[in-house]
Q: What sequence folds into this?
């Protein structure tokens, strides 16, 4: 169904963060807005938020965030007035941190009533789990703000429960998409072997377990090193340095910092195994896992939230349980020692990436999801 000539298009007021900082949620919201011209039956109006100026500020209180929240509420209200009647609100809910949940709660209570419909796109996981642990009075307030959305968009099968918990009219799954980093330029393992982690370098991303797994591998006689690429929160820097020193790995662990563009591509191409032992509170998908799959780097990751879906339940990568250091070390050793296994996993991972996780596939799925919602509302009207 297309909107007929001369009829008004529905406006979707998109409230969400865009880079900087660069993270999974900010990148995906930016992609949606960049694709705005592809919607001939829907107009996207952006209210860009930036509650955290750095990834490690997420979920923390500051006076800047309070002021920014007031500004966002005003900007959303102005966008709604410009859009006219029938406008919809699109929001990317925060993860389970208390301050971020409270921020979104205030925002929704302040503006939701102004809109004809609500779309919640869950790039961060864990919010509805935290909701179920709230005291009953707070749960009532929460449901007033979040309850009965018209559309919930999940990024992996594990996220579809959010729609059921909130009583959504409709829930769809739209996997994230990542840029094609191209197959790796080598297939033989380097000497020393090169392991790579990429993301926020923080304990719940499994960084401590990965350092301990590296210690086990070195103790088994393997010549191997590790790059921890990403932002290190200030509160974790000294702890991380102590973990590395206590394991005697100062000469084997590198911290290249945040990488992007050609530096990111080169780092993937120069790595033998990508390790992502995350049990991060807000982890919903693991975009860096899909990036490694596109780059032709075999993956070892955890059975956590949407990560098994990305790697096809172990068909396109090896999976271990969170916190299981021995299993993590064993999986890495298997990949380093078995060329046929590496080749098979890389091939399947590349096929899965091309079928499901390209940017083009993601944007096409988003267009279908939002157009179907527009059609359903038109029929109800």
A:
């Amino acid at each position: 169904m297309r909107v007929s000539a001369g009829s008004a298009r529905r406006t979707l007021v998109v409230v969400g963060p865009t880079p900087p900082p660069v993270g999974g949620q900010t990148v995906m919201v930016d992609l949606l807005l960049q694709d705005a011209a592809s919607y001939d039956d829907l107009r996207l109006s952006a209210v860009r938020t930036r509650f955290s100026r750095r990834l490690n500020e997420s979920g923390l209180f500051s006076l800047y965030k309070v002021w920014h929240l007031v500004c966002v509420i005003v900007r959303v209200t102005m966008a709604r007035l410009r859009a006219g009647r029938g406008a919809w609100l699109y929001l990317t809910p925060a993860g389970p941190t208390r301050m971020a949940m409270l921020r979104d709660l205030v925002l929704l209570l302040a503006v939701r009533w102004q809109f004809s419909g609500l779309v919640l796109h869950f790039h961060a996981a864990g919010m509805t789990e935290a909701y179920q642990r709230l005291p009953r009075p707070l749960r009532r307030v929460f449901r007033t703000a979040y309850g009965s959305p018209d559309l919930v968009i999940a990024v992996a099968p594990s996220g579809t429960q959010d729609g059921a918990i909130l009583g959504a009219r409709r829930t769809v799954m739209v996997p994230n998409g990542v840029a094609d980093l191209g197959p790796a330029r080598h297939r033989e393992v380097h000497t020393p072997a090169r392991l790579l982690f990429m993301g926020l370098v923080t304990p719940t991303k499994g960084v401590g377990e990965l350092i301990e797994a590296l210690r086990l591998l070195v103790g088994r006689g393997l010549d191997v090193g590790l790059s921890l690429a990403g932002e290190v929160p200030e509160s974790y820097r000294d702890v991380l340095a102590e973990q590395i020193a206590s394991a005697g790995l100062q000469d084997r662990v590198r911290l290249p910092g945040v990488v992007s563009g050609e530096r990111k591509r080169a780092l993937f191409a120069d790595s033998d195994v990508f390790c992502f032992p995350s049990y991060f509170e807000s982890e919903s998908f693991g975009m860096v896992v899909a990036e490694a799959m596109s780059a032709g780097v075999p993956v070892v990751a955890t059975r956590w939230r949407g990560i098994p879906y990305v790697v096809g339940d172990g068909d396109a990568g090896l999976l271990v349980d969170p916190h299981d250091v021995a299993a993590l070390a064993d999986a890495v050793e298997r990949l380093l020692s078995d060329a046929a296994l590496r080749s098979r996993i890389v091939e399947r991972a590349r096929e899965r990436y091309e079928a499901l996780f390209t940017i083009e596939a993601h944007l096409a799925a988003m267009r279908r999801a939002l157009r179907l919602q527009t059609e359903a509302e038109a029929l109800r009207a």
